[in-house]
Amino acid sequence: MINYNKFTLDNGLTVLVNEDFGTQIAAVDVLYKVGARNETADKTGFAHLFEHLMFGGSVNAPDFDTELQLAGGTNNAFTTNDLTNYYDVLPVNNIETALWLESDRMLHLDFSERSLDVQRNVVCEEFKEHYINRPYGDVWHKLREMVYTTHPYRWPTIGLELDHIREAKLSDVESFFYSWYRPNNAILSISGGISTAKALELAEKWFGDIPAGVQPERIIPQEPAQSAARFKKVEADVPVNLVYQVWHMDGRNGSGYYAQNLLSDVLGNGESSRLYQSLKMEQQLFTDISAYVSGSMDTGMFVVSGKLADGVSYEEGNAAITRELKKLQSEGCGDRELQRVKNMVETDLAGSYMNALNKAQGLAMAEMLGNADLVNTEIDMYTAVTATDMDAAASLLFREDQCSTMFYGK
Length: 410
What we know:
Elements: E1 5-8, E2 14-19, E3 25-32, H1 46-53, H2 64-70, E4 74-79, E5 84-91, H3 95-107, H4 113-132, H5 139-147, H6 162-166, H7 170-180, E6 186-192, H8 196-207, E7 230-235, E8 242-249, H9 257-268, H10 274-282, E9 286-293, E10 300-308, H11 314-331, H12 335-351, H13 356-368, H14 374-383, H15 387-397, E11 403-409
């Protein structure tokens, strides 16, 4: 159980505090409710660009990393299609350094052509290194543009095209920042050896005078239901050929999400899973195979992906996956099998909130989903899933007319 208190400052900033006097460490997590889904199709990659720009310095702290390191701290950040998250870990008696730094870049980010040029070049090099010049680097570009026709999930966080970042103007960057990186679109989560009263006092001191913003009315186009099977063959000179089968699934708050997530574990999480045992160990059609979900806020992706063994054709491997899915639909999921994956999830959840940073991040992400208490109640959602729910999920998901299939390789 993670105990916490929640507050909202006058400027709209949500503040979550978890007292943990068993440690002299504090974690400060600032989650902005903006990701690639908030971009437009002609200006993509901006949320990820800001992950870098936010470390480029603010008016009063031109070198973010050095200031935090002098206080004995570390920091990092990540961007997804749904959010951008910045976090700092440091001795609790130096927590004001982190709060000062985070508040200063929320209020006074250094907008200059110099800073933009530096970070734009960094992101462009990252794009080329990881997505253009690396084997399999464009897999998720190709998959997303096939699976999604309308929703902004059709591009990855790095962006749709390199030119969108290369041609980004300072005015574009400033507009994006003042639209989304405002206190009323952010969550400040603090965990560690600090009292709730003190944490709230410091949050008010450092963030309370930052003006709220007016967010644009960005209506995210929702993905229409898929009504016909989709197929793509991508020619690439890679060591191993890949097969993907992808279906749309419930978003993170959808009523069927938990059963569908458990279904992915039954099929392809670990060496005891159905696909691993049948298609790798017994039939030796794949050298590796797995199933997983994207966990997106809006309509997500249920993915089965496998690396074909030498001499196995795309068609043979793809047909074998389909047979296993039909077998699951006809046989259903047994009680022991369901309990096995529930136990896995329970173990994972219990281990995911062991330190201050994980608690701070877990609370912030749960709050973004609508209720910070989800960190304490989510296990109940999984426990409540029945074998009947699993059968319904399999029947709903694995329809051939709603599958997007991609062969990638030679």
